[in-house]
Design a protein that fits this description.
single chain; alpha/beta; 8-stranded mixed β-sheet; 18 helices
Length: 444
């Protein structure tokens, strides 16, 4: 009977020890990866969003696997609706070793500046519908009972602090859910918008939202800029902190070339809603058009740090880069905007403009043909077609299509003074004449 060779047995033991060590290292690596900010934002949050039917986003996260979690700029927003929860910061301190032992001991949870906003829309829907009216889940047969019940973990939260909490409820009478994206004709959009805004004022003239809605109709469809400004001012007397009203008023002031006033107004909007992607993006746009390019770039970088898939952010950043003469970089931003929102003729038109400036003429003309066909069926703006012609150096065609936009009372003509695609046309006397007929102040 032979004995086991001690050398061979020691070799196997060493191999087993190495294998066990590798397994432990892999488990540690998996644990630390699963608790990184990128993993939380890229894997965990999309699963939570899918389960509740609303977009859950984070501005940033600081996670220490052993002791604490810090989440910044949390937002919960239903698709196409208003955010119903924003939180400036959430901090939680815990003990990993107690969790491993089956007891979840959280020493402190601090929630900084949470804002819960319940918005009742004119059609009876609410921004909480995704939570309160979730579709019934398909029933599945109950799994067989386990042979032995496991003991549930014990949860012990020692302290919860809620700082500067706000709960708000508002009735939102939005007159043009499809405004400016050409999913319906301009004439139909104008009629529906005017009817909704008029009805809103009849129902409750004391709502800031009603006056802001009418202000948008007067600005974009009537080109009644003075009347629109009066409505915005009335709205902000009623509710000085109405973020959307402040944003839209800032955009009116920008369209009129009153950049200092526009900046003051958009900063107020940002103070009222610091996590709003669109307000942050519009802030960058106004900085750019007022000549503050360096600040604009920093603002867009901050905005896109909040949400990398924000198509409007990439689009407006692209416009800023065009204005700054960085056309190759502009192409990259505009391509991302089109990637995230391929249905937008506005984004595709500006991409064609940038293609033309960088010598990609065939690609520019391909988009020009597509957008022209869409404009003929009232599904795109003739002003955007004009911008592509301007980049191609075909000024007569550009002014011919701008005249078509004028005759159709295209809502995008309100941006005539400062739109980047029209910069090559500004020194032509025909441009000054068009500005006068739209009712905008003469440009410098």
């Amino acid at each position: 009977m032979s004995e086991t060779n001690p050398t061979k047995r020691g070799s196997w033991l060493r191999k087993l020890a190495w294998l066990a060590g590798i397994v432990v290292v892999l488990l540690v690596v998996v644990y630390f990866v699963a608790t990184t900010s990128a993993f939380v934002k890229g894997v965990i949050l999309p699963q939570i969003s899918k389960s509740i039917g609303a977009d859950v986003t984070l501005g940033g996260a600081d996670i220490s696997p052993f002791s604490h979690v810090q989440l910044r700029n949390l937002k919960v927003q239903p698709p196409g609706g208003e955010p119903f929860l924003t939180v400036q910061e959430i901090r939680a301190s815990y003990s990993l070793w107690s969790i491993i032992g089956g007891n979840v001991v959280v020493s402190e949870v601090v929630i900084e500046s949470p804002v819960v906003t319940v918005v009742q829309n004119a059609d009876g829907t609410c921004n909480l519908d995704c939570l309160t009216k979730a579709p019934a889940k398909e029933t599945k047969p109950a799994p067989p009972a386990p042979a032995k019940e496991s003991k549930p973990p014990q949860i012990d939260i020692k302290k919860v602090a809620l700082n500067n909490a706000t709960v708000a409820r508002s009735q939102l009478l939005r007159p043009f859910p499809q405004f400016n994206n050409f999913t319906i004709s301009q004439a139909e959009s104008a009629a529906k918008s005017r009817a909704a805004a008029t009805k809103a004022l009849e129902l409750d003239p004391s709502l800031a939202e009603s006056h802001v809605s009418m202000g948008q109709v007067l600005e974009n469809f009537d080109w009644g800029f003075d009347s629109a400004e009066r409505e915005f001012r009335r709205a902000l007397v009623i509710n000085p902190g109405y973020a959307t009203g402040l944003q839209w008023y800032a955009e009116l002031l920008e369209n009129l070339g009153r950049y200092d006033e526009a900046l003051a107004m958009i900063r107020r909007a940002q103070d009222a809603d610091p996590f709003s992607l669109i307000i942050n993006a519009v802030y960058g746009q106004i900085l750019s058009r007022s000549g503050r390019t360096k600040e604009a770039v920093a603002q867009f970088q901050k905005t896109l740090d909040l949400e990398r898939n924000f198509s409007l952010g990439h689009f407006l950043f692209g416009l800023t880069l065009v204005r700054d003469g960085k056309n190759e970089e502009a192409v990259k931003e505009l391509e991302q905007a089109v990637q995230f929102s391929p249905e937008s003729s506005v984004y595709r038109s500006m991409l064609a403009y940038a293609y033309a400036l960088t010598g990609r003429i065939d690609e520019a003309r391909k988009i020009l043909g597509d957008v022209t066909q869409e404009a003929k069926s009232d599904r795109a703006s003739w002003m955007d077609v004009a911008g592509i012609y301007a980049a191609l150096g075909e000024k007569d065609h550009a002014f011919a299509t701008l005249e078509m936009a004028f005759q159709r009372r295209d809502s995008r003509m309100t941006m005539l003074l400062n739109h980047e695609a029209l910069l090559p046309l500004r020194n032509d006397h025909r441009f000054s004449d068009l500005v006068r007929r739209v009712g905008l102040p003469q440009h410098n």
